[in-house]
Amino acid sequence: MMMLFPLLPLMLLSVCTARVGSVSAPVHTFKQTDPVTGMQLECDRCPPGTFLRASCTSTHKSECAPCPQGSFTELWNHIEKCLRCGVCGHNQVVKAACAADSNCQCECKQGYYYKTKYEMCVRHSECPSGEGVLSTGTANEDTVCHTCPDGTFSDAVSAELNCSEHKSCDAAGLVLVLKGSSWHDSVCVSCGDLRATDGANYLKDIIPAFFLHHKMSIRRLRRLVHNLPSEDGKKQGGTSTLSLSDANVRINMWVASATAKQIRQLPAVLTKVGANNIGERLQNKMHRIDSNLKELCTLGNEEVVE
């Protein structure tokens, strides 16, 4: 946690911090020499929320005054001016406002936590696809992720979402043509559905999650978008400056309108742009769907090819 610096005479705080630990019993007096008589005096200190307006003399006690707005003292003191209230730092919000007897206290704003190593608030980590949030981040702790266990998946990058259970094809009266993994849901079909004539139509269901999980450099991703198959054979323009998120949006838009024939060309396009391994993985997914569609919807067999 952020620490509250001890109060020192003449010290002005420039930032708000969080208070921790305990302090020893306060000393309520201090020694001072009377400027007129030269006598050693024991004067009263001023309580928190006040400052010493006038020191004691041989005939008068110490005179204390309240801290004006925007200033504070937290300890018994004999300083001549209250300390200026601090301000919260970058990515911090006020947890407790400054008062006459306490400086303001800050904490990391929503979505951030205090990282001791850097002594600053940093954004909560996001769990990648294939992992879910075991515990959400707080102002003092980062997100804790875990790999999705068998039977569950996560197809999102999130600091809040946990893994979800794979859908049950049997419960919906459908057949399973692609078992779910840690990063995509199970793919179910109805053999009476016209889409069942081509497995590429079902591969579309997992392609957005596929590209989210299988990382590609932005340069290669831009080349992929540029070379996505189209009805007229034209290349997609405006790809050289696409950001990572924009490139994924363009891919998802293409998937939504792509024909089965165009989807089948996608592994070859991946190979063309140098993503050979990713292309092979996508081709394998398509092969599993095709094989299971043939077995389950043609022969009525219930064994699924993994």
TrEMBL record:
<feature type="repeat" description="TNFR-Cys">
    <location>
        <begin position="66"/>
        <end position="106"/>
    </location>
</feature>
<keyword id="KW-1015">Disulfide bond</keyword>
<feature type="domain" description="TNFR-Cys">
    <location>
        <begin position="66"/>
        <end position="106"/>
    </location>
</feature>
<feature type="repeat" description="TNFR-Cys">
    <location>
        <begin position="107"/>
        <end position="145"/>
    </location>
</feature>
<feature type="disulfide bond">
    <location>
        <begin position="88"/>
        <end position="106"/>
    </location>
</feature>
<feature type="disulfide bond">
    <location>
        <begin position="85"/>
        <end position="98"/>
    </location>
</feature>
<keyword id="KW-0964">Secreted</keyword>
<keyword id="KW-0732">Signal</keyword>
<dbReference type="Pfam" id="PF21733">
    <property type="entry name" value="Death_3"/>
</dbReference>
<dbReference type="InterPro" id="IPR048522">
    <property type="entry name" value="Death_3_fish"/>
</dbReference>
<keyword id="KW-0053">Apoptosis</keyword>
<dbReference type="InterPro" id="IPR001368">
    <property type="entry name" value="TNFR/NGFR_Cys_rich_reg"/>
</dbReference>
<feature type="domain" description="TNFR-Cys">
    <location>
        <begin position="107"/>
        <end position="145"/>
    </location>
</feature>
<dbReference type="Pfam" id="PF00020">
    <property type="entry name" value="TNFR_c6"/>
</dbReference>
<protein>
    <submittedName>
        <fullName>Tumor necrosis factor receptor superfamily member 6B-like</fullName>
    </submittedName>
</protein>
<feature type="signal peptide">
    <location>
        <begin position="1"/>
        <end position="18"/>
    </location>
</feature>
<keyword id="KW-0677">Repeat</keyword>
<keyword id="KW-0325">Glycoprotein</keyword>
<dbReference type="GO" id="GO:0006915">
    <property type="term" value="P:apoptotic process"/>
</dbReference>
<dbReference type="InterPro" id="IPR052459">
    <property type="entry name" value="TNFRSF_decoy_receptor"/>
</dbReference>
<feature type="disulfide bond">
    <location>
        <begin position="67"/>
        <end position="82"/>
    </location>
</feature>
<feature type="disulfide bond">
    <location>
        <begin position="127"/>
        <end position="145"/>
    </location>
</feature>
<dbReference type="GO" id="GO:0005576">
    <property type="term" value="C:extracellular region"/>
</dbReference>
